[in-house]
Every structure is written in C-alpha cells, then in structure tokens.
Amino acid sequence: MNKYSLALVFLFVMPSSFADIVKKSSSGICHDKSSPFFERTKRFTEFQTLSACLDSGGRLPKGYSSQHSEMDKAISEANEQQRPYSKAYDRDEWSHWDDTDNNGCNSRDDALIQQADGKLIYRGNSKCDVIAGTWYLPYSGKTYSGPSSKIDADHIIPLSFAHKNGGAAWSKRKKQLFANDLQNILIVSASLNRQKSDSGPAFWMPPRQTYRCDYLSSFDGLMAKYQLNHPPKEYRVVSRMHNACNLSAPFKVNK
C-alpha cells in the first residue's frame, strides 16, 4: 500500500470524536456541552474529556452543576466507551519524572539525553540537567535546537489512558514504573503534545504520516507489555489502522 492510499485509510477510519469535545477557552476555563458558554466559546483548545482539560491546567466555570461531577463524567465516559468504570484519574498517583533506575537522572532528563540529535548543554557541572540541545521530533519530522524547556516529554500511552484502560487498579509502584518507562517517553513539540492530550490512536495520530505506522507499533507494544485494553469502539478503529499498516491485530487481554 503506497503512502497516499495509507493516508486515505487513516483519514476515513479516524473519527473526529466518539464523544462530545471539551473546549478550554483562552482564559483557561473548561467548557463541556453542559456549559452555557460552550457554543459561545470560539477560541479554544480541544480536549476529548473534561479530566484531560482540567489536567492541562484548566478550571471549571463558576457555578458548575454538581450533577456533572468528575465521577459522573468518568462513569459516562466508561459507558460510552463500553469499558468498566474506574475511579477518577489523579495524575499525582502516577509519580513521573522520577529516577526509577537510580542513575542520578530523572526520566525526563534520561529521555532528553538518550534522544538528543547533537551536542547537549548542561546546567553547571550537572550530568543530568539538560538546558539546551538539538532533538529530532518524530511526531512532526522537524529538528529542534534550543532550550529544553520549550519541548515536551510525551508519554506514548498517556497516563490517564492507561488509568482508564486497565491501570487504575495497579499499585503505586507499578504506576510509577509505567510513568517513568523510557520506552513510553518521546521528546516532542509542546504544541503536538497538547494537541494529543490523553488520546489513544483512535482519536489522535502524529501529523507526520510516514511515522504513523511506527507510532502504532510502539503504542501496541506498550499495550502488550502492560496488559492494557483499548475500549471496544476504539479497538475496531485501531484494528483497521493496523491492517492498513500491515501490522498484526492490536493487543487484547485474554479474559
């Protein structure tokens, strides 16, 4: 299958959403469909879930109705995605950017160092604290040179995605190991990391089309490593993507 045919396959199998989007206004307020300001909000960042919007630093509108609590949202999302309900995601339970391998560098530092595409500049005499360098950014296919603070370390499988699809019951230690697994961390542009939010491949794929099959393969390998399941609706979409890439069927936990 040539790259043009593959692009068409991805275009038609990737829905714009399975559920209502959440709009984060330019003032940082998260509006879902229940908000009276939802339709009036024209300048916004789109998120797939309310929890993802709040996790990005957003806040609820004043007087937000209790009937649309985080728990109600989590239950609604679980029903929509045909998966078991898990308690509301708390990012603090997934301790990240830690030094889990005891090499003196936290996992973000390790990723910056391992994925560098040129000379790095460290802070003072530190062998870990990277302040600038050059990196190839796989989601966009662009090379970036400059301060490390301007780029992001992205979890290929987002933490909240893992939480909702099998990881909620993990021990704190397993959550920590997952959140700091270098196989699950990529150095990417900040804008694409925000765009991706907590989406799986059924909702978001890298804009660089020639990288999409590699991204799918990496995502699936991590799903198998950690025994995570796609929600049924998403699994069907991802299956068609795998077929377009000549990949084996997406991982599924045998019950």
* Oligomerization category of the chains in this entry: single chain
User: Strand count, sense and closure of the main sheet?
Assistant: 3 strands, antiparallel
Mean pLDDT: 86
The topology string of helices and strands comes to HEEEHHHEEEEHHEHHH
Count of discrete domains = 2
Radius of gyration, in angstroms, nearest whole number: 19 Å
Helical content class: 25-40%
Number of strands: 8
Write down the overall geometry: globular
Structural class computed from helices and strand pairing: alpha+beta
Low-pLDDT windows of residues: none
Strand line-up across the major sheet: 2-1-3
Straight-line N-to-C gap: 34 Å
Strand content: 5-15%
Count of separate DSSP helical elements = 9
Please explain how this structure is put together.
With 255 residues, the protein is of the alpha+beta class. The chain folds into two domains: 1-16 and 94-255, no CATH class; 19-80, no CATH class. Helix content is 34%, strand content 14%. The strands form three sheets. Strands 2-1-3 form a three-stranded antiparallel beta sheet. Strands 4-5-6 form a three-stranded antiparallel beta sheet. Helix 1 (3-13) runs antiparallel to helix 9 (232-244). The protein is globular and about 55 Å long. The two termini are 34 Å apart. The model has no long low-confidence stretch (mean pLDDT 86).
